[in-house]
């Protein structure tokens, strides 16, 4: 039996996942189907990179856009930009994610944010996490990942450094009690 698709969920890396790129990761799963999965990391910030510098690369005046930090979206295609945002804005190639949030990776969302006409809630990320056909499904059967509902609060209000622990707490789990190794019965 196939596991349920995880689109619209937050994927949390368990302690001891075994891949340092994903230690304490929080990934918003934007697409998950029989062909594979794509998610945007929202639990780590790119060092010394603000939104204004990102806009500058596209020769866009920052205008009304705050100079928020940019997230490390994942290890795949780290030069490619994404904006995870509220559903009150849509543009060219915007993908609605399970009625919870949206994802846009075209320049029109950057211009809209700079002009003060973009989504009310958003975060920018470089790169993404990707899984091939069946890969995430298989990984979910082993120790390493846990899922919780992707709420607006966790996506847009919770400080980045608290997202991982607060996401576990939203499921009633004290993250301090998690073990880095799986047990045996």
UniProtKB/TrEMBL annotation:
Entries under Pfam families matching the protein: DUF179
Region forming the signal peptide: none
Coiled coil (residue ranges): none
Highest taxon above the source species: Bacteria
PANTHER family in the record: UNCHARACTERIZED PROTEIN YQGE, UPF0301 PROTEIN YQGE
HAMAP family on file: UPF0301 (MF_00758)
Protein family per UniProt: Belongs to the UPF0301 (AlgH) family.
Name the UniProt record assigns to this protein: UPF0301 protein ACFSCW_10630
